[in-house]
Write a structure and sequence with these properties.
The complex is a heterodimer. Chain A is mainly alpha-helical. Chain A contains twelve helices and two strands. In chain A, a hairpin with a 4-residue loop joins strand 1 and strand 2. The relative contact order of chain A is 0.12. The N terminus of chain A is likely disordered. Chain B has two domains: 216 residues, 3-Layer(aba) Sandwich (Rossmann fold); 60 residues, 2-Layer Sandwich (Alpha-Beta Plaits), CATH 3.30.70. Classes of the chains: A mainly alpha, B alpha/beta.
């Protein structure tokens, strides 16, 4: 007899068991694991590229320039101290998440409903006495767990990569052109800020997951759901970078998604952070309910 | 146990997939739902399972409306689809757990019993990707039996099975009915298959119910025969002289007063060479045409 024996409980416990099975399905696919492996590989490649002489000069020059803007305080900075594991780990994480995070989240969330429909397993599930709303809630929660797992893993592995290749106990230098942000932290507070920022990065990336989830609920192929999500994000990035739209660049989704880095600023703009995350949360909620609304009206013929 | 009430369904503004279909299946009955591909059988099954929303009409299972309370109505229902699909990258056992999880029910001992019953014990921990079609069908049966169903909905369940598998499956269905009293709806396009296991049948054609009744009554009326002779023209004259009707080359009916052996004697006496003769069962298509003709008067 196992813990699953007997009639499964309803409510939260029943939901958690169903979520466990959904995750077993998700992580049973080889494709789900590939993202984790590729993240490590890409981070190692970036680390090696950043170790090149020109890259070292570029990063150190940037730290120096930003420090010099700090006025008389610049004499307090030890530049070598800030060319560290935390600084480089954050830099690698930023590039890796932009290049791969969106892709893997869109792939997995884009598959979540439409792949089951394509494979024919959805009809097996829908023939069970489970409501469509509950089914989607289970799947959406599984997407949430995957997003946290992938981003958490990426953040941790970036930091470990940084610690392998750079000074592990150095300070934390952060710069962001989009947010017009520059900050310097000592190791302890810097590490703390890094760890605090990771859940917010995961929340930001959950927007990608939610959009892919929405498309997955529509009548389309899994690949189409993934491509549509990525296309939407690319269009957003391109528009955000266009010169005539610079005055409103803060309204674009990807701009709002990058505000997790505000947690790394010396003085955190909590109001801006709450404002942006409320809007991101709204996008996630609308994506889920729009997906649910379409899915619950669809006919699934065997 | 199962009541289908005046179902109407049209997909995308085209021809109606179901047009006022109604029938009922009693508790413990094995009921056949017959029809060609595209006749509307799968749509009807989809509505029974709440996967397709009818434009009007309803389905009740054990008196509970699928439209109004789907989860409760399907609590004791198992279903098997044509070409069942599973999570091929998971083991068969994990597949059963995942699917049972959606029913909110899992009993390890019962599950082992069912796996034993369908003959998959030795391979239950193997990945489904290594399963043959027949094994997948047996796994489909196992997952349908997990919620200890009172009603089993089977959509072309023997499709793709080899003759041995089909025979085994039919025997299993009969056992389920006899030993467990399970009500079974058997969806098929094969008249001969349905006839062997079902007590009653309904026939759907172009979304309309054209026949509902005892499976034996499908064959009621004058028996039909097929004969191979060297002279069909003279043979048909003799048949018609005896009160029968020559239908087409080699096919004919006889009145009740005339036995086939009497006709054979008459043909032999007339010097006609007979190479084969036998009763001929109607195909589903012929049955459709007959029903349509009867309806048109």
């Amino acid at each position: 007899m196992t813990a699953l024996d007997g009639r499964m409980p309803g409510g939260t416990r029943g939901f958690l068991r169903q979520l466990y099975f959904e995750l077993a399905k998700m992580f049973g696919r080889r494709r789900t694991h590939i993202g984790f492996g590729v993240f490590v590989l890409l981070e190692l490649i970036f680390a090696l590229l950043f170790k090149r002489e020109r890259s070292v000069e570029w990063v150190q020059g940037m730290i120096e320039r930003r420090a010099s803007r700090a006025g008389p305080l610049r004499f307090l900075f030890d530049l070598d101290y800030y060319y560290s594991a935390l600084t480089m780990g954050h830099m690698i994480l930023g590039v890796a998440v932009v290049l791969l995070g969106g892709l893997f989240l869109a792939l997995v969330a884009g598959d979540i409903v439409s792949k089951e429909e394509e494979d024919g397993t959805l009809r097996m599930v829908l023939s069970r006495p489970v409501s469509r709303g509950r089914l989607l809630a289970i799947k959406y929660s599984a997407c949430g767990v995957f997003t946290c797992a992938l981003i958490g893993f990426a953040a941790l592995s970036s930091l470990v990569t940084g610690m392998i290749f750079w000074r592990p106990d150095g300070g934390f230098f952060i710069t962001s052109r989009d947010l017009e942000l520059t900050a310097f932290h000592k190791f302890g507070p810097g590490l703390w800020r890094y760890l605090i920022a990771v859940p917010f990065l995961a929340l930001s990336m959950f927007v990608v997951t939610s959009l892919a989830f929405l498309f997955s609920c529509l009548r389309m192929k899994p690949a189409t759901a993934t491509i549509l999500t990525l296309a939407l994000l690319f269009i957003d990035i391109i528009l955000k970078r266009m010169e005539p739209l610079q005055d409103i660049k803060h309204v674009f989704i990807t701009s709002r998604m990058s505000t997790w880095q505000l947690l790394l600023a010396r003085d955190i703009d909590w109001w801006l952070l709450i404002q942006n995350f409320s809007i991101l949360g709204l996008i996630c909620a609308v994506s889920f309910f729009a997906g649910w609304s379409v899915f619950s009206r669809r006919d699934f013929k065997s | 146990m199962l009541e289908i009430k005046n179902l109407h369904k049209t997909f995308g503004g085209g021809k109606p997939a179901l047009d006022g279909v109604s029938f009922s299946v009693g508790r413990g009955e094995v009921f056949g739902l017959l029809g060609h591909n595209g006749a509307g059988k799968s749509t009807a099954l989809g509505i029974m399972l709440g996967m397709v929303r009818p434009d009007s009409g309803d389905v009740t299972i054990g008196g509970i409306s699928v439209r109004e309370n789907r989860s409760q109505a399907l609590a004791k229902v198992g279903a098997i689809f044509e070409s069942p699909c599973f999570y091929s990258y998971l083991s068969a056992w994990m597949n059963l757990k995942v699917l049972a999880g959606y029913s909110g029910y899992w009993d390890e001992d019962k599950a082992r019993e069912i796996v034993e019953l369908v003959g998959l014990s030795e391979r239950i921990d193997s990945k489904v990707s290594t399963y043959s079609h027949g094994m997948r069908q047996r796994l489909a049966l196992a997952q349908a039996l997990l919620p200890q169903p009172e009603l089993l909905l089977l959509d072309e369940p023997t499709d793709g099975l080899d003759p041995e598998g089909i025979h085994e499956f039919r025997r299993f269905i009969v056992r389920l009915r006899d030993q467990l009293g399970v009500t079974i709806l058997f969806n098929s396009h094969l008249l001969s298959e349905v006839e062997q296991v079902c007590g009653r049948v309904a026939i759907i054609r172009q979304g309309k119910l054209v026949f509902e009744g005892d499976s034996k009554s499908v064959y009621s009326g004058e028996p039909r025969y097929q004969i191979e002779v060297d002279d069909w023209r003279r043979t048909s004259e003799i048949i018609e002289a005896g009160g029968g009707a020559a239908l087409s080359e080699g096919r004919f009916t006889l009145p009740e007063s005339l036995r086939i052996c009497d006709l054979v004697s008459a043909l032999v006496g007339a010097g006609i060479e007979i190479s084969a003769v036998g009763e001929r069962r109607r195909t589903l298509e012929e049955l459709y045409l007959e029903v349509a003709e009867a309806r048109d008067g």
